[in-house]
Amino acid sequence: MKQGDNLVIHCKDKWQNFELERLPRLRFERDWVGKAPLPTTEFVLAAEDGLLHFLFWCHQKPFYDPAERDNLWHYDVAELFFSHNEIAGYGEINLAPSGALWWQTFSHVRSKGVGGPSWFIFEKAQNRAQVYSDQWSLHFELALREPITEELCLNVTAIVHHQGERQYLTWLNLAALEPDFHR
């Protein structure tokens, strides 16, 4: 599978030995403008017993503020964008190396609040983060109110900093000149 292809969600019922850490990882091959990511950045999406698991690895020391809870996108962050083929609106989840979690629904591009997709409301969410001297990782669990179906569209994005340079990573190819994951 290559960057830009539809995302694969590994399902427990299709794996004889379902160990999340051992599932095949997807690796970002390029950033928004086509450059190779400076740090190796990988992820896995998996579904198990009504939970969506998102595992994320960035192989460099993170740039983050442990006290920040709202403006996570100013630092290193992993993001999930959810939309539905037949329902307007989308949801966004930001996950920080500190374990902080921020989420929002949008009725239209960058239009917060009333009118966001009700299907995005989830039963529970948990973000477990680990920071080491040379990398950081996340294991995020999300229980959506509705089952995961083929109509659910996902994009995994990330913002990573390396030697003062900010890189925008997106799995899906988004047609825009400037980085804007809300497309």
Largest sheet: 6 strands, mixed
What fraction of the residues are assigned to beta strands by DSSP?
A: over 45%
Determine the structural class based on helices, strands and strand pairing: mainly beta
Termini distance? Answer: 22 Å
Molecular shape: globular
Low-confidence stretches: none
Helix-strand string:
EEEEEEEEEEEE
Number of helices: 0
Rg over CA atoms, rounded to whole Å, is 16 Å
Describe it:
The chain is mainly β. It contains no helices and 12 strands. The chain has strands at residues 10-11, 26-27, 41-48, 51-58, 77-84, 87-95, 101-108, 111-112, 122-131, 136-144, 152-162, 165-170. Strands 1, 2, 3, 4, 9 and 10 form a 6-stranded mixed sheet that branches. A 6-stranded antiparallel sheet has the order 8-7-6-5-11-12, with no helix packed on it. β6 (87-95) and β7 (101-108) form a beta hairpin. The protein starts with 9 loop residues before the first strand and ends in a 13-residue tail after the last strand. The mean pLDDT is 81.
List keywords for this structure.
183 residues, six-stranded mixed β-sheet, six-stranded antiparallel β-sheet
Chart the SSEs and their pairings.
Layout: E1 10-11, E2 26-27, E3 41-48, E4 51-58, E5 77-84, E6 87-95, E7 101-108, E8 111-112, E9 122-131, E10 136-144, E11 152-162, E12 165-170
